[in-house]
Specification:
With 633 residues, the protein is of the alpha+beta class. It is 39% helix and 20% strand. A 6-stranded parallel sheet has the order 3-2-1-12-13-7, with helices on both faces. Strands 17, 18, 19, 20, 23 and 26 form a 6-stranded antiparallel sheet that branches. Bound molecules: zinc ion (ZN).
């Protein structure tokens, strides 16, 4: 296991503003970087912008500015976005940086000197959008498959990199290192490309048609092809060739890309490295697209979800959670606001948010607002052992880039902790001072579980993790580490517990934001959250209606004789919606422990439940046969 970790995003092309695809890749890189820092590895995380080439020159011309001014403006947008998404990159590289320009020229000269760059003639179909020549067989009905535009036929003298020379080496390397490119489908895709003879790569553009690039060190009349320039950023960022960072981090280099740039990263880059005498990177990690309405969500189709809009609407951590939880790494995924809100309400508000609020509320109540002091030798280790198992599974999932699986196992642990509360019933123990010691241990276990959860979710949701830690009295300055989960006495007795605000308030489902699929009432005037123990106070029962009659002189009251394991009388205001005959024999839902109340002189012991509809009230019944008197939970 290497003690260092190097992760890169692609450097983003500055021909358009950041979109959800950029946000996803960069958040994944951030999750990986944060995770590896938690494991104690020295970590270096690089992102940046790719600023040369035809498209930038064109866009700048349209905007009436110089290419440098244009690149400055868009690069600044990316640079400003990352802190807003809690991205913790260690370095931001621009291909217009002087150290990068020097490095590209250094590598070009090296490869040229070794004889792997030659001058030749090229003619073919050139797509301006792709900035590359196409072979006739690659075109679809004479058009660029990506841009659906007709390429221009061009003839040029240019410099070529002898990529074909390294074809067999690359095939063998990939076969010997099965996780060099992952997931496997992308390894197979690269091997499929390599079944046909590989062409040499045209790596220059004559200045007569493009000046916006890095001048070749061996011919002033040409600039460097944008890919041969851009890919080199990954070693420039480490101060190649002499830097200490290069020695430390290059052997553990991992690239993260979307599948649209698989070929440059899976074929050009390893062969370029080989020709320059640099070892290949360790892993190329390839993810799919975020789809919306079946079409690729990308700038070229003008179908862009602005990441910051969603972050502002629902909060950054919910946004990060959704992207990581809903996409199986490597596969395409659909983005919808509905799915987002469902996740937020179920996983974040319901599972995680409620757990934290229940535990803190109970711990404050039963432990005098402080982390309790307990005898660790005699405690129940159920939760601790589950936390250790979860940690091991999360590590395995990170190692093979299954980040959604890591979240699934963390949520299994969250739900196990929720069940632990239900099983232990601290509110029952709390009634009897004789159970004080047992109760204290249970509360300690729950607080320790929250600590483990906070550490495990930290790479994904750093702000939420910090909020949880603050509530359980962990000092902000405490250095988090993954192995710390294995310490079962890590919480300091006597530290003050702090009741915080709800971590993830439920999102109301309204017609306005089109979240509701079904036409229905909007969830207005919702009530404040309650704890499970409040809910547990309700004695809900299955009741069978034995008899029903109209209460004389009343508008809508019916007197019902019911069986809930005992016979009772209740009075219900459903006389406008039901005739007595309709009700007899029905099984309904009743709150059995509501304080008795007198209505029109009749004592009602309990209350039935009903819902409003457009046509009046409907009484709640059961989907399947339920036993009279059975508890409802
Ligand atoms: Zn194209």
């Amino acid at each position: 296991m290497p003690r260092a970790f190097y992760i890169t995003t692609p450097i983003y092309y500055v021909n358009a503003s950041p979109h959800i695809g950029h946000a996803y890749t960069t958040i994944v890189a951030d999750v990986l970087a944060r995770y590896h820092r938690l494991t104690g590895e020295e970590t270096f995380f690089v992102t940046g912008t790719d600023e040369h080439g035809d498209k930038i020159a064109e866009a700048a011309q349209k905007a009436g500015v110089t290419p440098q001014e244009y690149a400055d403006k868009i690069s600044a947008q990316f640079r400003a976005l990352w802190p807003a998404l809690s991205i913790t990159n260690d370095y931001f590289i621009r291909t217009t940086d002087s150290n990068h320009i020097d490095n590209v020229r250094y590598i070009l000269q090296k490869v040229y000197d070794s004889g792997d760059i030659y001058f030749g003639e090229y003619e073919g179909y050139y797509c301006v959008g792709c900035e590359r020549f196409y072979m006739e067989k690659e075109l679809v009905e004479g058009k660029c498959p990506d841009h659906q535009t007709k390429p221009q036929y061009r003839k040029e003298s240019n410099y070529f990199f002898r990529m074909s020379k390294y074809q067999n080496w690359l095939i063998n390397y990939i076969k010997k290192h099965p996780d060099f490119i992952r997931p496997e489908r992308y390894k197979n895709e690269v091997l499929a490309f390599l079944r046909d003879p590989l062409d040499d790569l045209c790596i220059s553009r004559p200045k007569t048609r493009l000046q916006w690039g890095i001048t070749l060190p061996f011919d002033e009349k040409y600039v460097t092809y944008v890919w041969f320039d851009a890919l080199i950023n990954y070693v420039t960022a480490l101060d190649y060739p002499q830097g200490d960072k290069f020695k430390k981090f290059w052997p553990v280099a991992q690239h993260l890309i979307a599948k649209d740039i698989l070929k440059p990263h899976g074929i050009y880059w390893p062969t370029m490295l080989k020709a320059a005498g640099i070892e290949p990177y360790q892993h190329l990690n390839v993810h799919g697209y975020w789809n919306s309405d079946q079409s690729k969500m990308s700038k070229s189709l003008g179908n862009v979800v602005r990441p910051l809009d969603l972050k502002d609407k629902y909060g950054l951590d919910a946004f990060r959670y959704f992207l990581l939880r809903d996409m199986v790494f490597g596969l395409d995924s659909s983005f919808s606001e509905e799915a987002f809100v469902q996740r937020l309400n179920s996983d974040l508000a319901n599972d995680l948010g409620n757990l934290v609020s229940r535990v803190i509320t109970m711990a404050i109540k039963y432990c005098d607002g402080k982390v309790p002091k307990i005898n660790h030798k005699k405690k129940d280790l159920t939760l601790h052992k589950a936390a250790l198992k979860t940690m091991a599974e999360v590590q395995a999932d990170f190692n093979d880039m299954s980040l959604h699986k890591a979240l699934i196992v963390i949520w299994d642990f969250i739900n196990l902790t929720n069940r632990y509360i239900v099983e232990k019933e601290p509110w029952t123990l709390g009634k009897d001072p004789a159970h004080r010691e047992e109760l204290t241990k249970i509360m300690y276990n729950l607080l320790a579980a929250l600590r483990a959860i906070a550490i495990l979710i930290f790479p994904f949701m750093p702000q939420t993790a910090q909020k949880i830690l603050k509530q359980i009295g962990v000092d902000e300055s405490e250095k988090l580490d993954l192995a710390g989960i294995s310490k079962d006495d890590a919480l300091t007795a006597g530290n003050t517990l702090i009741r915080g605000e709800s971590l993830f308030p439920r999102i109301e489902i309204t017609k306005e934001n089109k979240i509701s699929a079904e036409k229905g009432a909007t969830m207005v005037d919702s009530k404040p959250e309650i704890d499970y123990e409040d809910f547990a106070k309700l004695d809900l029962r299955v009741a069978k209606i034995l008899d029903a009659e109209i209460v004389p002189k009343s508008n809508k009251l019916l007197k019902l004789r019911i069986d809930i394991g005992e016979e009772r009388t209740i009075v219900a205001g459903i006389g406008k919606d039901y005739t007595p005959a309709e009700l007899i024999g029905k099984k309904i839902l009743v709150i059995a422990n509501l304080k008795p109340a007198k209505l029109m002189g009749i004592e009602s012991r309990g209350m039935l439940l009903a819902a409003d509809t457009d046509n009046g009230l409907t009484v709640l019944t059961f989907e399947r046969e339920a036993q009279t008197g059975a508890k409802i939970r």
